[in-house]
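job 3f2a | input accepted
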Amino acid sequence: MAINLAEIIILCLMVDWLFRKIGMPGLIGMLGVGIVLGPSVLGVMNLEMLQVGADLRMIALIVILLRAGFELSKESLDKVGVQALLLAFLPALFEAVAITIFGPVMLGLTRMESAILGCILAAVSPAVVVPMMVRFMHEKRGTGKGIPTLILAAASIDDVVVIVAYSVLIGIYTGSNIHIGWKVASIPIAIASGILVGILAGIILYKVFDRFNPRATKRAMAIIGVAIVLVHVGDFLETKDIPFAALLAVMAIGYVILEHRQRMAHEISLKLGKIWVFAEIILFSMVGAQVNLQAAAQAGIYGAALILIGLFFRSIGSYLCTIGSPFNQKERLFIVISYLPKATVQAAIGSAPLLVMASRGMDTVPGEVILAVAVMSIVLTAPTGAWAIAWAGKRLLQQEPAA
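job 3f2a | predicted structure (403 res):
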């Protein structure tokens, strides 16, 4: 596995340099490396590497979410409160409803199967969006109106809402004994519990750091360790049907330390930025390795058309969220573009309906269709979405003068 990891690192560094030279985000090249080395093309990625891929992706995602948390000041969050709440719900709702309506006509799925697909597709990808927003924060693009902060906060809640909605629908579809009222109530409970636990963890951490005064590198590693534990606790609580948004807890840690120990937060953020150089390679190459090009091809032109229809209605929902806001037309367009990429959630749960159907002895054809469309959504939107966000950020967002 070690030599496989070395190959991935070297190739990703090379394509990152090449893509940046031609004015494209390096992460597109890293996704491509994962696809080429993964099972869909060359199949040279070590089996052990693929088996630990999910854990590696999660650790890398934790690193970038921590970096995002260390950029979320109270002042910036106050600017975008209402719009963030709307963006967390409305675009996903528009997209999921559109796919529920058009899915039976275009793919031959039932209305319920189309709704399940709609929930899977409706999630925005933190793996693609969060690194871009953190970069814009560092470049001070759109920070005057808190636009990167808005998208960071909304995207994190968006995923919680979509995953809960998916779990309700798949439970109903398979005849599981679920309490719909509890599932709906679990959305605000998960958000609130995640934020509160993250705040508590942040307070404990900065007080421990005050007491023992470790170096910034050790502080960063300690925070990563705590964040990993929180995510695993979240996974355990999920099996017990206890709502807890672990990724929001991770972001809240950075927010609390920034509010109470600003100098400490900036030092830790710099260390996390260095760790991200490695984590970024792991995250995007592993996401790319999950892409099944054969499954994507099975979705065909109708699958691609359904994805585009969903994105069209999602864009309408995103734009409606900006009405009444202080954003100009260019900034509104940027928000719409930033909410398009798919990858993280689709890779994580795209195959789940198929597995559930197979385990229940149900017809697995709908599950295969759902998986194919989920994979195609990654292929179509992750690289193009990353490029579009990079392009839009430079041309549509105002760059604030350096302090």
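job 3f2a | Residues 180-212 form the longest helix (33 residues).
job 3f2a | closed
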